[in-house]
Design brief:
It is built from no helices and 6 strands. The chain has strands at about 5, 15-20, 25-35, 40-45, 50-55, 60-65. Strands 1-6-2-3-4-5 form a 6-stranded antiparallel beta sheet, with no helix packed on it.
Length: about 70
Amino acid sequence: MALHLQHDWVPVLGRTVEIRYWNTTVRAGRVDAVTDDGQMLWLAADGHYPRCLFERSQGYQVWIQYSWERA
């Protein structure tokens, strides 16, 4: 599965993404909300992981799998 850096966070609302910080995966999950300016997003709660906020200004990156690459 190839993941790609997503520069615009607004379109990932509702998608499953991987959050990375300094090339290290910190969390993966479904995007629950995104600010209108695309500077922050929340991943939905999942199992024992609570809902979590990630900010672009803190250095987090969003990585996605393109829908046309899915098997």
